[in-house]
C-alpha cells in the first residue's frame, strides 16, 4: 500500500453514523506488530503499545469501540505473555492474527503453545491477510511486484492460512477457538474440493477430510466478514461452501477510504436484498455478530 492512512476515533464514529453502525471492532492490520524480523523486544513493545491504545479508545468511547488484540508472533513466549495481559481488558473481544509471521503460517507447529494458551478460554481469532513470506525469505516473497500486494496476494495468503489450520488439525484440536476470516473466505470456496482430495494423500487414517468434513468445519468453527469486494460474484462461491448465518459486516476502514466504504455499502445493500430475506439481512448486519461476540 502507498502508506498508512490517517485515522481518528472521531472520524471513524462520523463514518459509522453515515452507515448506521452502532459499534466497531478495531484491530491492527498488515504487517501486524512484529515490524523487524527477529527483533522480539521491539515486537513486544509495539504490541503492548498498540493494544493499550485500542483499549484506551474503548475507554474513551465504550459504546462505540471494542478491539481485537495483537500478538508479537512468531515470538511464542511474548505472545503467551500478551494473551494473559490483555484478555481481561475492558473492550477486548478476541485476537487479530496475521495469516503468517515471517513465513510461519497459522497452524505451524511452532505456534502450538500459543494456541494452547488461546484455547484456555472460548476465544475469537480474527485472521487478517498479510504479504506472502516463507521461512527462507521472512520479509517477503512477492511475485508480480508491479501490482499492490492486497490486490490478489492477500486472498491467496488467507487461503494458505485457513488450509493449514484445517489440515494440521489445529481447528479440531483447539475446540474453544472460533475463527473469523476476512474477505468472504478469499479464494477458499473454489478450492475446498481440491484440498479435500489432496488431504487423502497428505493425511493418515481418521485425520483425512472429505469436502463435506471441511465444509462442516467451515460452517461450525468459522465466521467470514464481508470486507473488500464480495459482491456481486464472490458471495456466490462462498454460499456453495458456507451459509449466511456465518457472515458479518466488515469494512477494511481506513485502508479502504470512507467514501469507498460508503459506496461498497450501497452495493452490499443492493445485493443482500436480492439474495436474502429481511430476517437474514438483519442477521448479517447485526445478529450474527451478536451471536459471535455474545452481546
Automatic annotation (TrEMBL):
One Gene Ontology biological process: secondary metabolic process
Keyword Zinc: yes
PANTHER family per UniProt: 2-AMINO-3-CARBOXYLMUCONATE-6-SEMIALDEHYDE DECARBOXYLASE, AMIDOHYDROLASE-RELATED DOMAIN-CONTAINING PROTEIN
Keywords recorded for this protein, A-Z: Decarboxylase, Lyase, Metal-binding, Zinc
GO MF, any single term: 6-methylsalicylate decarboxylase activity
Entry EC number(s): 4.1.1.52
Catalytic function, reaction form: 6-methylsalicylate + H(+) = 3-methylphenol + CO2
A Pfam family assignment: Amidohydro_2
Name recorded for this polypeptide: 6-methylsalicylate decarboxylase
The keyword Metal-binding belongs to this UniProt entry's keyword annotation: yes
Family: Belongs to the metallo-dependent hydrolases superfamily. ACMSD family.
Origin organism lineage: Eukaryota, Fungi, Dikarya, Ascomycota, Pezizomycotina
Domain annotation Amidohydrolase-related: ranges: 19-294
GO cellular component: cytosol
Species of origin: Aspergillus pseudoviridinutans
Amino acid at each position: 500500500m502507498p502508506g498508512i492512512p490517517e485515522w481518528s476515533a472521531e472520524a471513524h464514529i462520523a463514518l459509522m453514523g453515515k452507515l448506521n453502525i452502532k459499534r466497531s471492532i478495531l484491530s491492527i492490520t498488515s504487517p501486524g506488530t512484529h515490524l523487524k524480523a527477529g527483533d522480539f523486544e521491539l515486537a513486544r513493545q509495539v504490541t503492548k503499545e498498540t493494544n493499550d491504545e485500542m483499549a484506551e479508545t474503548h475507554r474513551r468511547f465504550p459504546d462505540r469501540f471494542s478491539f481485537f488484540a495483537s500478538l508479537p508472533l512468531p515470538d511464542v513466549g511474548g505472545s503467551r505473555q500478551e494473551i494473559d495481559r490483555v484478555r481481561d481488558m475492558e473492550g477486548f473481544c478476541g485476537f487479530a492474527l496475521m495469516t503468517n509471521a515471517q513465513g510461519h503460517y497459522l497452524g505451524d507447529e511452532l505456534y502450538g503453545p500459543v494456541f494452547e494458551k488461546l484455547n484456555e478460554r472460548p476465544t475469537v481469532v480474527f485472521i487478517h491477510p498479510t504479504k506472502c513470506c516463507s521461512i527462507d525469505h521472512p520479509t517477503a516473497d512477492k511475485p508480480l511486484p508491479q501490482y499492490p500486494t492486497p490486490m490478489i496476494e492477500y486472498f491467496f495468503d488467507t487461503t494458505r492460512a485457513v488450509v493449514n489450520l484445517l489440515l494440521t488439525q489445529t481447528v479440531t484440536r483447539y475446540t474453544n477457538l472460533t475463527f473469523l476470516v476476512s474477505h468472504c473466505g478469499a479464494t477458499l470456496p473454489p478450492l475446498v474440493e481440491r484440498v479435500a482430495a489432496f488431504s487423502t494423500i497428505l493425511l493418515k487414517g481418521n485425520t483425512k477430510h472429505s469436502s463435506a468434513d471441511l465444509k462442516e468445519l467451515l460452517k461450525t468453527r468459522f465466521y467470514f466478514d464481508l470486507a473488500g469486494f464480495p459482491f456481486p460474484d464472490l458471495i456466490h462461491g462462498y454460499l456453495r461452501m458456507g451459509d449466511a448465518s456465518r457472515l458479518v459486516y466488515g469494512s477494511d476502514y481506513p485502508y479502504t477510504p470512507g467514501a469507498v466504504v460508503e459506496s461498497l455499502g450501497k452495493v452490499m445493500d443492493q445485493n443482500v436484498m436480492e439474495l436474502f430475506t429481511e430476517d437474514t439481512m438483519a442477521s448479517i448486519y447485526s445478529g450474527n455478530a451478536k451471536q459471535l461476540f455474545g452481546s
